[in-house]
């Protein structure tokens, strides 16, 4: 039976090192000759992404429900492309995905189930790696930035919701990694998790929350 590419999501809090680790993972997959394509959500380059970008920079105001739906729409815009790449045997790595959508909006007070609904049936990652970091440790990495959610109290609430989401997955599909360590140690743990999937997966892409 033909294999397809693996779908890997890297999730985490602000400053947890997602961007750094996604780049390191890409380089490692490249060096092993494994085709890989990166996505980053929000993708600020699409029409929907431009509205999200303006909101995150506090250049526009939106109702909490409306921005939540835009984040989800931004994923749906790219869902078909992700599925196509997976079918072609390309490993897809996402820097943030639907779990961020739920975690940030639920942290603002929207009901968890309502937050999940628009992302139901999106392609589900085969593996989600959650880069966990304390707000104190994150602050050491240059402090929080200027975007809307980059505040310590918000990050604490987001971390709590991520813990709830994590508890719904088994150990094979959701792995929490201590991201407060040196980059090489984090990268080594990520590779240990990704390596067994890197040569492809047998079976269809699963659907999120169905
Ligand atoms: N959001 C949402 O509400 N709903 C959704 O559906 C989605 C997102 C998808 C923008 O996300 C916001 O959108 C985000 C969630 C919300 N708000 N917050 N917070 P984003 O992905 O564009 O922005 P970000 O997550 O805040 O990215 P970031 O600040 O760039 O963090 P990062 O990618 O995790 O970290 P990094 O850039 O790799 O590293 C940060 C710094 O730490 C940098 O100087 C590195 O050199 C350094 N670093 C990295 N690793 C280490 C280690 N191990 N030790 C020491 N220093 C390190």
From TrEMBL:
One of its GO terms (molecular function) is dTMP kinase activity. Keywords: ATP-binding, Kinase, Nucleotide biosynthesis, Nucleotide-binding, Transferase. CDD domains: TMPK. Pfam families: Thymidylate_kin (PF02223). This is Thymidylate kinase. Residues 10-190 form the Thymidylate kinase-like domain. InterPro entries: P-loop_NTPase, Thymidylate_kin-like_dom, Thymidylate_kin_CS, Thymidylate_kinase. One of its GO terms (biological process) is dTTP biosynthetic process. GO terms for cellular component: cytosol; nucleus. Belongs to the thymidylate kinase family. Pathway: Pyrimidine metabolism; dTTP biosynthesis. It is an enzyme of class 2 (transferase). Its EC number is 2.7.4.9.
């Amino acid at each position: 039976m033909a294999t397809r590419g693996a779908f890997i999501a890297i999730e985490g809090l602000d400053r947890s090192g997602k961007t750094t680790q996604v780049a390191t993972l890409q380089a490692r997959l490249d060096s092993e000759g494994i085709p890989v394509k990166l996505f980053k959500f929000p993708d600020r380059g699409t029409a929907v992404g431009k509205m999200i970008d303006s909101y995150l920079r506090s250049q526009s105001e939106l109702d909490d429900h409306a921005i939540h739906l835009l984040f989800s729409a931004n994923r749906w815009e790219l869902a078909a492309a992700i599925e196509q790449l997976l079918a072609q045997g390309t490993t897809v790595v996402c820097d943030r995905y639907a779990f961020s959508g739920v975690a940030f909006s639920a942290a603002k007070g929207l009901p968890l189930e309502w937050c999940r609904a628009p992302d139901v049936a999106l392609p589900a990652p085969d593996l989600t790696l959650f880069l966990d970091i304390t707000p104190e440790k994150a602050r050491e990495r240059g402090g929080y930035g200027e975007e809307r959610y980059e505040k310590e109290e918000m990050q604490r609430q987001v971390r709590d919701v991520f813990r709830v989401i994590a508890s719904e997955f088994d150990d094979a599909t959701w792995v929490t990694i201590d991201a407060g360590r040196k980059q090489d140690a984090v990268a080594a743990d990520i590779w240990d998790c990704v390596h067994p999937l890197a040569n492809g997966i047998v079976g269809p892409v699963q659907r999120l929350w169905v």
